[in-house]
User: What shape does this take?
Amino acid sequence: MAKNKITYGLSNAHVWPITAVSEAGVPTYGDIINMPGATALTLDAEGSSDPFYADDTVYYQGVSNNGYSGSITLADLPEEFLTKVLNEVVDKNGARFEDASATPNEFAIAFEFKGDQAKRRHVFYRCVATRPSVGSTTKEDAVAPNTQELAFTAIPRLDNNFVKARAEEGDTAYATWYGATPYEFEAQA
Assistant: This one.
């Protein structure tokens, strides 16, 4: 398998809405939603590193993994994402309404980066998004397309504490990354 020295680019973003969670914390995923037009993604690690001092030194170093927070920028958010994840309501005439009392659904998100040797696919299993901002600018002598930034956090799954996974082109997992559900862990024999 080829190993990357560098990665670049962003493409093939998809989400799976989480439609239910069992008592054991296992998510049920809805139909995959294509998120075309991805232009940027930034996710920063969340957590802490907490030293415990004894014998005049750091005796123990505790580390917590609280997932990631950041955003993805898209040319435009798909209507399906707005209704199935952010729970906007569509009336009989096609108008879309944002309900202040609606709670967004959690979702999984997958995307890929190019590399000098192989493409790398990522999936974050349990995410929560906030509402995107609304804005535009006037057209001048050149058309500058608008984008929408979607802020979200990726937190550990309740059933197995997995936050994310990744695979490179050539890995067996790579071929099934965008299935009916996000790629699931398979223990080694």
User: Anything to note?
Assistant: DSSP finds one helix and eleven strands in the chain. The CA atoms of residues 16 and 32 lie 5 Å apart. The first helix runs from residue 79 to 84. The helical segments are 79-84.
